[in-house]
UniProtKB/TrEMBL annotation:
Keywords, in A-Z order: Cytoplasm, Lipopolysaccharide biosynthesis, Nucleotidyltransferase, Transferase
Similarity comment: Belongs to the KdsB family.
Subcellular location: Cytoplasm
Principal place of residence: cytoplasm
Catalytic activity, as annotated: 3-deoxy-alpha-D-manno-oct-2-ulosonate + CTP = CMP-3-deoxy-beta-D-manno-octulosonate + diphosphate
Enzyme superclass (EC): transferase
EC code(s) of this entry: 2.7.7.38
Domain of life, per lineage: Bacteria
InterPro entries: Cytidylyl_trans (IPR003329), KdsB (IPR004528), Nucleotide-diphossugar_trans (IPR029044)
Function per UniProt: Activates KDO (a required 8-carbon sugar) for incorporation into bacterial lipopolysaccharide in Gram-negative bacteria.
Protein name (database record): 3-deoxy-manno-octulosonate cytidylyltransferase
Length: 256
């Protein structure tokens, strides 16, 4: 799969882990480790998009392409939209958004998402995996997605959807057999045409209530196709404990 661009939004602000993108992992900043993993995909370019001069300097020091973007973006998608404009990407270009706190991201998953976009005439794609645990389904921190028969998202919610009325009336500790429950994974691919128009899309009421940015696209009538994977990708880094886990992994498995 060729011809797509990976963009990694990175900003220093983090309430739980200050200066997270610059956290050292095996002698390199985390954002550099993410870029190195993304570079193992078939992407034609891997670009870090940041609003901080320290992140920019760290990327340049390690040979990672970086763009300095505005500091007033409310979301990573807004930052991607600026990158698409700065690079003057053609409307049909595919941009994969890889989070800057996922140093264990699987390059093959990046390729799968880009290939899905190339094969389907859709403006946006994302990833999900099946949920098998009822506690996970009822956890509002776990975002669920319901799909149509073509694999497109019908809705994303923090609520337990789809809701098995009769089964859950009897027992909410078990998922009934065959219930199609999927956990959304926050990895996205976009057509540049959508990014070019994103700034004109007003925030949606559903997006604001659920605190889920992707609902803006559905609200405005854009299709989101979903790549379903068998297992959850490795968790990103949100806490000091996550950072310790990733550092231990790199120490045990990787060098350089």
């Amino acid at each position: 799969m060729n011809g797509f661009v990976v963009v990694i939004p990175a900003r220093l602000a983090s309430s739980r882990l200050p200066e997270k993108p610059l956290a050292d992992i095996g002698g390199k900043p985390m954002v550099v480790r993410v870029a190195e993993r993304a570079a193992q995909s078939a992407a034609s370019r891997v670009i870090v998009a940041t609003d901080d001069a320290r992140i920019e300097a760290a990327c340049r020091q390690h040979g990672v392409e970086v763009l300095l973007t505005r500091a007033d973006h409310p979301s990573g998608t807004d930052r991607l939209a600026e990158v698409a404009a700065l690079l003057a990407l053609p409307d049909d270009a595919i941009v994969v958004n890889v989070q800057g706190d996922e140093p264990l991201i699987d390059p093959a998953l990046i390729d799968r998402l880009a290939a899905l976009m190339a094969a389907r005439a859709v403006p946006m794609a994302t990833v999900a995996h099946a949920i098998h645990d009822a506690a996970e389904m009822f956890n509002p921190n776990v975002v669920k997605v319901v799909l149509d028969r073509h694999g497109k998202a019908l809705y994303f919610s923090r609520a337990p959807i789809p809701y098995a009325r009769d089964a859950f009336a009897a027992d909410k500790t078990q998922l009934p057999p065959g219930l199609p429950v999927y956990r959304h994974i926050g990895m996205y691919a976009y057509r540049a045409s959508l990014l070019h128009t994103y700034g004109s899309l007003a925030p949606a009421p559903l997006e604001q209530f659920e605190a889920l940015e992707q609902l803006r696209m559905l609200w405005h009538g854009y299709d989101i196709v979903v790549e379903c994977v068998a297992e959850a990708p490795p968790a990103g880094v949100d806490t000091p404990e996550d950072l310790a886990r990733v550092r231990a992994y790199f120490a045990a498995n990787l060098s350089g």
